[in-house]
Amino acid sequence: MIRIIEAVPLEGYRLKIRFNDGLEGIYSVQPERRGGVFRKLHDPSVFNAVRMNPDFGCVEWPGGVDLCPTSMHEEMLVAAHTGVTR
Which residue from 62, 84, 85, 72 is spatially nearest to 18, judged by alpha carbons? Predict the structure, then answer.
């Protein structure tokens, strides 16, 4: 099971991520593209409040906003091999 073991907020709505399989890199959250509840993340104080959920191995923010670690992992693998990010 893919789990995030470290997440550090960066400028530009990005996270420095490290997974339990050793993959690490920068993940662009892009709250404007995601819309909905992710719009809350435009507030830097909310975005910077990111934390690890130890039960699910995902990142989450106040208000129930979270991201699937498997989807993040797949996107980062594609970016690492092609140089293309979404």
Answer: 72
Sign of CA dihedral 55, 58, 60, 66: negative
Say if residue 34 is exposed, middle or buried (CB neighbours under 10 Å; 0-12, 13-18, 19+): middle
**Contacts by 36-40, CB closer than 8 A, 24 or more apart:** 37/63, 37/64, 37/65, 38/65, 40/65
* Segment (H or E) for 10: strand 4-10
Residues 21-73 have pLDDT tens digits of 999 999 999 988 888 999 999 999 999 999 999 999 999 999 889 999 999 99
Q: Which domains does the chain have, with CATH numbers?
A: 4-82 (3.30.2020.10)
